[in-house]
């Protein structure tokens, strides 16, 4: 069980927490307000802010490391954000073992991607703005993971949504990018409805939405309420982490520049949902039904993403499908409760390394191939881009779970935890994760083979430029190499003497499940399954030549290419009916509400037009009516009196 | 003599005046009929004063006379102006002030 | 009571500019705008002085003045502010100079009259918030219609016919509401005159109602409540009394539209908060369910209609209807959170919708069309215009870090405490808000540069000077709403309406706090 939530006051070194956020925020502010004047050094300032934040994060990490296990939780109160009677929302930060992992991941991977972007965006005239947005993203994401209450977390949550919107739509002149950005924001907002309702429900239940009162008050709350809060939090997590049924935006989000896809839509922002669930472990521990739904959502998305990843020819969309699927793993693990929380986070971190590396590799490939994203136009690139090939290959080995690379350690634990759940649900979840591992091995091998192996299938772009693949400049290669090191070593490092589990246990709690069969057997099965996936992919894409035109494909392939009709469903159910509804309402407002008003006006006008005809201009007729009226009055008086 | 007879006379005079206002078209005649109605009212006032032995009615009759005199001054002036501009004193011809 | 008449000076200060403009020689008509901007800045300074003089934590109504006006009916010229009125006056004083600066080239052939009318409008707007005499409030409430009618009807979009249609519609709608209010004011006087010494003085009345000294029979109270409420609901506007707003806002100049939507409509919600709740508490409780339903309908209906609009200014007008639904929800939530949120929302909505209207106006002035489809790709040629537009839009969709978020969340939380179902329905508006704002941005600003847009100039210095203060305030109030809640909190807690009803305490708050220590 996690120890009760009782953070210490942040003094000394720990007073630096706010600065971790302030530095990138200041960077973004300078670059956005400074305008063109900062064009010259904008990218450098952006990188400096990110690295500075990372350094502070590292200082905080080592300071935490120097404390005993029960003294690694600190609260820093900055100021009261919304001072209203009975509702005091603080701008306050909470640093503990969980948030520091995120701080290091965000600023670490973030810094590498900042550096990579210096090269990647070198020819973009708006590079300064790009770095401003990246810094803004870092600041918002750090607020999200460092907040000490759910309202501030929500602010960060929406802040990363904004950064994501700005960065997906960075090339606004492309209509597809603008639409994708809008779609991402709106779908996220659907999730945000859940999160904001969860915060409200917390407020009415616990009288506060700060972590302390909420976590410590769980024992006194009704299970039904906690389940409701849990499900609402899950809805929020689904939006941000592209989980079923709010998964549709992630594929389109690949319209953004590739570093964005690597940082936001692979390594950090999309994993915020997992953070939310793990952070709220006190609530989920007390609401088993909510946890069950979490595992179901995770399992469904795991399969959905994997299937979509198999069919995409667009390298980034294939990787996006993979991201969905891997986050499905994390969500599933988080839904398992104390058996899985730690491994969800561990997979999140290792995934952060290898998926960011894979995306950066994809960006490097695109860089050399005239920004073509279609893998059917690649092939044989390993000779032309050796560094990209090696780093991408290491990331590939990590993601399919090949020992001893990072993914093996974390994914294997999730599969183990799923089986340990016990009962029918344990078997179902366990088999799903195994099947996921199979498909992961298949589609990643497919990506690898189509891109780096086989024959050249290069085609000229619209302007007729033949691609001349070349290795990317060192500013891009170095971050890829560093991430590759992470993909290789992180998992083993974390698992050494269960370092990761011991580190996180005070926050999330941890219990070892009991496998229904031997550990070794599971290892063997998992490896066999992975090998099967690789072999099948090789038989399809390695042994025979890949056609440059996509074949029509079976029904399943066509469905997967269209994201299993997720978009079609949304369009039919929400967009069409929504458009119809607004059109009907506009008509109703014009003809119904306004029509009624104008109708009354017209009626009044018409009847007065008729009435005025009585005014004939003949004095004698007026006199007659006066006499008539007077007579009537007198008669009436006499009647009443008499 | 029974004062009620004065009231009957007053009613007859008033009715004659009212009929004249309604039926005649010549503005001068209509005007005279209005005077007739006013004087019928005056007669009634004076009769009532006499019957009740109070002076109120008499005083009101004086007021009426003053008002009637003022009215004659203004009214006749208007009628003459109308006649000058349109060579007619018929009230039906002056019907421009309508819807 | 004693001392320098700060409020009266603030209220009357724009008249200085009106006099200045009136004295201008015929040849120097264009000087009117400089005079107007300078005067409104003086008013802003005076309003800030009022805020400084206001003693937070002191009496509920401060800076009060009272002079007998019509002694037979106990009608006084009495003014005074509580925190709620004070922040609304501050908002008005901020918006007017900004609007005048943005309207530099509006006013057509008669700029003198245009700017003078704007200043007269400011006098009345500040006066209506400051009035503590019910009759004075009513008189100013109605008198506001005169300058606004001329501002809508004489200036703005070309096309005389539709413009005068909009102006007349605005006038008739509001006159009808005002008439009902007049009847209610008279009724209130008749009843109050029996037991209350000063039957038009609002603080006295509110106190008398709270202490039971002034008691209405159930039927009378409900009718009086309806008289006031319908007048305010037309003003605010609440569904289904809203159709005048899109017409008026679309036909008026952007500057007039800002004052119309940003300030004038707030008088409606301000009136609900002050008059309806405090004078007729039990009737307000009785009608709360109906009003909540109307507010929720307004919120969702306004948002859906905004999505369906093709005209930029009509779109923004409909977003306001949606926001007014939320404000009304907060007012009638009967919680401190809801009412503080509603008051804060009034200010924030003025700032963000004001900025949005002005920026849409700048956009329209470059192309001459209000149709959304006439634009596209503006961000490429005018990035600052697009950026500021997006920022104002994001504030309108209540993004955290920008001012509207705090108020919207407070309103929703405050409602959720007592009426969770209404809150759940209203929360859907945050998705709809994202749709209408971002779709508007997508259609006008992004995509390939269209031919019509390619010659656009970015914002000029004057235009920047108009919107930057608003955007800066939006940011500052997003991070530090405490600047305003300092004034609003005591006003809401001192307000008698909340003392009658106590909010149910969160179920296990006490226990959680106990174990927290």
TrEMBL record, chain A:
Domain NADH-Ubiquinone oxidoreductase (complex I) chain 5 N-terminal residues, every copy: 81-131
Alphabetized InterPro entries for the sequence: NADHpl_OxRdtase_5_subgr, ND/Mrp_TM, NU5C-like, Proton_antipo_N
Assigned GO CC terms: endomembrane system; membrane
Regions crossing the membrane: 12-33, 45-65, 98-118, 130-147, 193-215, 221-239, 260-278, 290-311, 387-406, 426-453, 474-500, 520-541, 622-640
Entry keyword set: Membrane, Transmembrane, Transmembrane helix
Record-level Gene Ontology MF annotations: NADH dehydrogenase (ubiquinone) activity; NADH dehydrogenase activity
Record domain NADH:quinone oxidoreductase/Mrp antiporter transmembrane: where: 147-435
Any single GO BP term: ATP synthesis coupled electron transport
UniProt topology in membrane: Multi-pass membrane protein
A Pfam family matched in the record: Proton_antipo_M
Location(s), subcellular: Endomembrane system; Membrane
PANTHER family: NADH-UBIQUINONE OXIDOREDUCTASE CHAIN 5 (PTHR42829:SF2)
Name under which the protein is recorded: NADH-quinone oxidoreductase subunit L
Organism: Actinospica durhamensis
From TrEMBL, chain B:
Signal peptide annotation: none
GO molecular function: NADH dehydrogenase (quinone) (non-electrogenic) activity; quinone binding
Top class in the EC scheme: translocase
KW Lipid biosynthesis (keyword) present: no
Subcellular location: Cell membrane; Membrane
InterPro entries: NADH_UbQ_OxRdtase_chain4L/K, NUOK/Mnh_C1-like
Enzyme Commission number: 7.1.1.-
TM stretches of this protein: 6-23, 28-48, 60-83
GO biological process: ATP synthesis coupled electron transport
GO cellular component: NADH dehydrogenase complex; plasma membrane
Topological relation to the membrane, as annotated: Multi-pass membrane protein
Catalytic reaction list: a quinone + NADH + 5 H(+)(in) = a quinol + NAD(+) + 4 H(+)(out)
Keyword Membrane annotated: yes
Keywords on record: Cell membrane, Membrane, NAD, Oxidoreductase, Quinone, Translocase, Transmembrane, Transmembrane helix, Transport
Record's function text: NDH-1 shuttles electrons from NADH, via FMN and iron-sulfur (Fe-S) centers, to quinones in the respiratory chain. The immediate electron acceptor for the enzyme in this species is believed to be a menaquinone. Couples the redox reaction to proton translocation (for every two electrons transferred, four hydrogen ions are translocated across the cytoplasmic membrane), and thus conserves the redox energy in a proton gradient.
Quaternary structure (record): NDH-1 is composed of 14 different subunits. Subunits NuoA, H, J, K, L, M, N constitute the membrane sector of the complex.
Similarity comment text for this entry: Belongs to the complex I subunit 4L family.
PANTHER family noted in UniProt: NADH DEHYDROGENASE SUBUNIT 4L-RELATED, NADH-UBIQUINONE OXIDOREDUCTASE SUBUNIT ND4L
Name of this chain's protein: NADH-quinone oxidoreductase subunit K
TrEMBL record, chain C:
Translocase recorded as keyword: yes
Any one Gene Ontology molecular-function term assigned to this protein's record: NADH dehydrogenase activity
Gene Ontology cellular component terms for the protein in this record: endomembrane system; membrane
EC numbers for this chain: 1.6.5.11
Membrane spanning residue stretches: 6-24, 36-57, 77-101, 113-131, 137-158, 170-192, 223-245, 257-280, 286-308, 315-336, 342-364, 384-407, 419-441, 464-484
Top-level EC class: oxidoreductase
Entry keywords, A to Z: Membrane, NAD, Oxidoreductase, Translocase, Transmembrane, Transmembrane helix
Main localization category: membrane
Membrane topology: Multi-pass membrane protein
Subcellular location: Endomembrane system; Membrane
Region annotation Disordered: where it falls in the sequence: 498-517
Pfam families to which the protein is assigned, alphabetical: Oxidored_q5_N, Proton_antipo_M
Entry similarity comment: Belongs to the complex I subunit 4 family.
Protein name as it appears in the record: NADH-quinone oxidoreductase subunit M
